[in-house]
């Protein structure tokens, strides 16, 4: 094998590994990498329920996820299969987030969020008041820019709500509570 072929094979292996771990991350949350996934889903990984997760059990989990993604069963993952795996994991994560949001906002517990329930959220008024620095009842472009900067400082640059901040976007909620 030539050096170029070895380099290409190594790059492909790294890409597949990164993509699989990204899909696992999306599927299993911010700690979804090999060890993080184990911490979050220990019981599911412990196939024989002996209170221990072995390398074999981790390998079996990886193999099962690979087999699920390998829709044409050729033993290889195409770009399309990797994308489909990632989209499926992302859809599951978004569904979980939507359910959690409804659970938090749905005051009458009917399984839906009404306009009244959305308007009753105390953080809406609090967010407006925090952004309206001069208390004139309106948010200017300068006030909006200042709010974005404060939020970025507390949430970590480039990280969104719920990513790397626990179940409820810790940086955002910390910012909302005035701990800046």
Automatic annotation (TrEMBL):
Keyword Phosphoprotein: no
Keyword Repeat: yes
Annotated EF-hand domain residues: 57-92, 93-128
Record keywords: Metal-binding, Repeat, Signal
Signal peptide: 1-26
Source taxon at top rank: Bacteria
One GO MF term: calcium ion binding
Name of the protein described by the UniProt record: Calcium-binding protein
